[in-house]
Structures are given as C-alpha cells and as structure tokens.
Specification:
CATH architecture of the largest domain: 3-Layer(aba) Sandwich
Distance between the termini: 25 Å
CATH class of the largest domain: Alpha Beta
Largest sheet: 8 strands, mixed
Number of strands: 19
Bound molecules: ligand PMT
Radius of gyration: 24 Å
Shape: elongated
C-alpha cells in the first residue's frame, strides 16, 4: 500500500498499557505524511508522559478540557473540526462505555461528542473485560452508529492472560488508516451475502440443519466491507457476532432466507451465496412436540427453493458468486454447479475434513469462473476471504 497520507489525524489515547504503542503509531503516521495532534485522557497520562507524544508529533499534546494554553492554540471544537479522522488507540473498556453513553467528562470524550468527524477505535483491554457482554454490546452499538472498530487482536496480554483484547499493532493500524482514505476495490458497491445454516422445523423444539458456523460468510462480509462495499449479511442461526460495519438480517429457515434475499437482490451489485441452505424441509412440521414412540417415525421432506438459482434468474441479476461444498471430485462438481446455477463464479471447498469447510477456522478454496480458475491455498478464513473478495472484485470489474 502506498505510504502517503496527507491527512489530519487526531489521535486519542486512553488509559491502558498499550499507550506505549501509540508512540510508534504517531511515528509511522508522521513518516507517512500525516499531521498528527494527540489528545490524552487523564488515565492515559498514568502510562505515558505527554512529552513523548509531543516530541514525536511535533505538537503540543492536549489533555485538559479547560486549558488556557491549549485554547490559545486551538480550542476543542476547532480541534475536532480540524481532523479528517479521529483514531482512539488504545480505547479502554471504560472509555468505550462512556463514548457509547454520550459522556463528556474529559477532553477526548467532549471532542467526540462535539464533532461530526469520522471516529475509529482500537479497543485494548484484558480479555475478560473484552469478553463481558457489557463491553461487547457497547462495541457493537458504537459500530452500528458508524464508528469504525479496529481490532482487538488476540494473544499474550501485559497482565499474563492470553486471549482477545490486545490493541492492533501500530503497523496494522497504519494500514487500516491508509485503507480508510484509499477507495477500496468495491467502493460504493452494494454486496449481499448469505451465511450460516438454516433450521428446518420438525416440531416446535426440533429441527434439521447442518454444521455451518457462519465463519466463512462472516469473514467475507468483513472483507467486502473493508474493500469499501456496503454489505448486507443475511444470516442463519449462528453463535458468532456479525462484523460491526455490516447490516445483518437474521433468519431461521430457508424460506425466510429466500424471501429476504429475493427482496434485496435486485438492488445488489454483487451476491455471494455462502450459506449452507438446507436442501429439504419437513412437509408439515408438527405444531406440538412429537411424543416419543417405541416404533420409528417417518419424516416427509420437500425440496427447498434453490436461492442462488432464483437470484441468477432475475432480470437484473447481480454478479453472483456461489459456493460448492463437496466431499469428493471437488472441481468437477463445482464446475457443474457453476453452469447449472448460471453463476459468474464459484468457490469450492472440500467438506467433511478437519481443516476446511464447515466449522474450521481455516479453509482452502478452488475458485472457478467460465474461462479460468485459481486455487486459494489453506489459510485462516479471514485471510481466504480477503483473497476471494480481491479476486471477485477483479472479475466483477472486468465484466462490468
Ligand atoms: O459456515 P462455516 O462453518 O464457516 O462453513 C463454510 C461453508 C462450508 C458452509 C461454506 O464455505 C460453503 O461451502 N457454503 C455453501 C454450502 C452449500 O450449501 O453448498 P452446496 O454445494 O450444497 O450449494 C451450492 C450453492 O447453492 C451454494 O452457494 C448455496 O448457498 C446455494 N444454495 C444451496 C441450496 C439452496 N436451497 N439454495 C442455495 O442458494
């Protein structure tokens, strides 16, 4: 990525041990060409002296709401308006909670409340604090309100714990800041993605489903959003949280997923069918719990609509990427689905094995289109998703 950033970055630093990494972030931002001003909360100053940031940014560090000296340089409203982007790194659990609730009891919170500028937070905290419902809920809510959430990363923590909650490394944050200012390959595109399994009711308490965790589809939603797209994720029941930057519509059954997709597909530029939709549903689900009998029971199944095929039959069909989940002869079966479902591309994965397909954190894909193919070798699902979105954007832009 090109290292030029002729932008004004307001860096907010809150109280956390990761504040030492903010010094390196300032150095990288200045090196990339950015003008950086730093605002510290009172607790941030327990970790790092303002002088450190002042030396690196070349400007006075702002710390107080009522500060005569600071006011003569730039008052807090002016400072907020000056910024092209406000980046809060590290963003502590306490700061995040206050930001969500609209507090203004320190300069940084006041700036956030008084400004219309885009804000990004890089959460950094102990893994237990991060895992608490209150914190996750606060972060999600901020994401829904349009605040960018960068990280956290997983790994060793200063307190000795291991888990999610580490602030992203300064070079990773710089890459995200650069990415924010450079239009992604899917900038302005509407992308509709299905993910997860569907549940097909047998009776009020039982259902037919499959092992899809939603990880692959959610990673694609994240990657598409990072590429600049406006993403709508239509998700079957899963136990993971959707990326904060995407709109998520939750559904249960294949019929519900079909209705949501068919309503939204005509407005989409790109449709990605990653959901593992149940091919069949029970003809007449029982309205009361089926009682256990000594004899066996029989379920009568009826085929579900093929959602992706219905999308590609639309007059104004979006560019469509389907998936193929295969246990053998992956490429041949996938190419047959590419043609039969009238897809623009198909990403095929081997399922029923440990490292790819359903439930795993990693995947390997063979991506096919009418006159070509590419192997995306085994990696974390998020990494594979980024590669697949990149390839899809190239094919989409070539066809457009
Ligand atoms: O969720 P994870 O645990 O991360 O697992 C990821 C995954 C294995 C579910 C994903 O990578 C994947 O392969 N998704 C497609 C699963 C599937 O249903 O494949 P299929 O070969 O049966 O279907 C082919 C295509 O038709 C798919 O795009 C599917 O979404 C679509 N389809 C299938 C049936 C149906 N009734 N409607 C559909 O739209």
């Amino acid at each position: 990525m090109e290292l030029t950033l002729k932008k004004n970055i307001l860096l907010g630093v809150t109280g956390g041990i990761a504040a030492y990494k903010s010094a390196e972030l300032i150095r990288l931002l200045v090196k990339a060409g950015a003008e950086v001003r730093v605002v510290m909360t009172p607790s941030a100053r327990e970790f790092v002296q303002p002088m450190t940031y002042q030396a690196l940014s070349g400007h006075r560090v702002y710390t107080e709401i009522f500060d005569a000296e600071a006011d003569s340089a730039m008052d807090h409203i002016e400072l907020a308006r000056w910024a092209d982007l406000v980046v809060i790194a590290p963003a502590s659990a306490n700061f995040i909670a206050k930001l969500r609730d609209g507090y203004a009891d320190n300069l940084l919170l006041t700036l956030c409340l008084a400004s219309q500028q885009p804000v990004a937070i890089a959460p950094a905290m102990n893994q237990q604090m991060y895992a608490k419902e209150a914190t996750l809920e606060n972060i999600r809510e901020l994401g829904i309100r349009g605040i960018k959430v960068w990280g956290p990363a997983e790994g060793d923590q200063a307190c000795g714990d291991v888990g999610p909650g580490r602030m992203l490394e300064p070079d990773g944050l710089l890459e995200l800041i650069l990415g924010y200012f450079s239009p992604g390959k899917l900038a302005g595109k509407q992308v509709l993605i299905t993910a997860g399994p569907t549940h097909e009711a047998i009776d009020p308490v039982r259902y037919i489903s499959n092992r899809s965790s939603g990880k692959m589809g959610y990673a694609l939603a994240q990657a598409a959003s990072e590429a600049g797209a406006e993403v709508t994720l239509v998700s079957g029941p899963v136990s993971i949280l959707p990326p904060t930057s995407v709109r998520c519509v939750s559904v249960i059954s294949a019929l519900e997923m079909r209705d949501v997709v068919i309503e939204r597909a005509p407005k989409a530029d790109i449709f990605i069918a990653c959901a593992a939709v149940s091919d069949y549903r029970v003809t007449n689900p029982a309205t009361q719990k089926i009682k256990k009998k000594d004899t066996g029971i029989q379920l009568q199944l009826v085929p579900n609509p093929d959602i992706v095929s219905e999308v590609t039959e639309l007059d104004n069909k979006p560019f469509t990427l389907g998936f193929a989940a295969e246990t053998e002869d992956v490429e041949r079966h996938a190419r047959e689905k590419l043609t039969r479902k009238n897809l623009d591309m198909i990403a095929a994965n081997r399922v029923g094995v440990e490292q790819s397909g359903f439930e795993s954190d990693t995947n390997e894909l063979i991506v096919l289109w009418p006159k070509g193919q590419q192997l995306l070798a085994l990696k974390e699902k998020y990494e594979i998703a980024k590669q697949l979105i990149d390839l899809l954007a190239d094919r989409y832009n070539a066809v457009e």
